[in-house]
Design a protein that fits this description.
The protein has about 220 residues and is an alpha+beta fold. The protein has 11 helices and 9 strands. Helix 5 runs antiparallel to helix 7 and helix 10 packs antiparallel against helix 11.
């Protein structure tokens, strides 16, 4: 049975309908699914969404793709995306996303997935599609949007000047100084308009200043 599943399901992540299609020859496919779950052949990430168990896995599953599928509409952003894009050194254990729906948290057998609600206009900008094998893809925030989402989410930081913001980005979030200077201030300006955020506008001005003064270092 395991070999049949592996031959007919090409990816590590699959849904209930795909699984049911493979088991259609069984008189009681739901009972068979329960048996596969009990043996650890497959793992239920959430209702209707599965991955192969560790002993049957052919390759690592895609956390970013699963994040898109667990709850939507959404795309990966915030701390997880900051590390994905190389802006922060620490890998985020929780897969963080933004959504235009309600904020949610899902504790699953493969880790925690969180979703932060942002305004619909802000949600619609700053996402990128990452293509994978066989036409599959997942959505993730571009670096500027991931940082903007994180900065907007920060409450009570007392950020009112470029210096406040620079200190917060470098010391609190541990943003890589070079990566910060590599951000696109025009994109940040656009995101600020969609967010209607003075703080993101401040970040666009900061990045613009850093780019102009790069020869003098981060404190130019």
């Amino acid at each position: 049975m395991d070999d049949i599943l592996l031959n007919k399901i090409p990816f590590e992540e699959f849904d209930y309908q795909t699984l049911l299609g493979v088991l259609q020859g069984y008189a009681h496919p739901r009972m068979k699914i329960s048996s596969l779950l009990a043996k650890g052949t497959i793992v239920r990430v959430k209702k209707g969404l599965y991955i192969f168990g560790e002993s049957r896995r052919r390759r690592p599953f895609c956390r970013e793709l699963l994040a898109n599928l667990i709850y939507g509409p959404s795309y990966v952003s915030l701390e997880y995306a900051l590390h994905y894009h190389g802006l922060t050194p620490e890998r985020a254990e929780t897969v963080t996303s933004v959504t235009c729906g309600r904020s949610r948290t899902f504790a699953t057998p493969i880790g925690t997935f969180t979703y932060r609600m942002i305004p619909i206009e802000a949600f619609r900008t700053g996402m990128d599609r990452v293509e994978q094998d066989a036409g599959r893809s997942f959505l993730i925030a571009i670096p500027e949007k991931a940082l903007a989402d994180r900065v907007v989410a920060e409450r009570g930081a007392g950020i009112t000047t470029q210096k406040d913001l620079q200190d917060y980005l470098l010391n609190n979030l541990r943003i890589d100084p070079t990566a910060l200077g590599d951000l696109n201030p025009v994109r940040l300006q656009e995101i600020a308009r969609h967010y209607r955020s003075r703080r993101i506008k401040l970040m666009a001005d900061l990045v613009n200043r850093l780019r102009k003064g790069r020869k003098g270092g981060i404190n130019a």
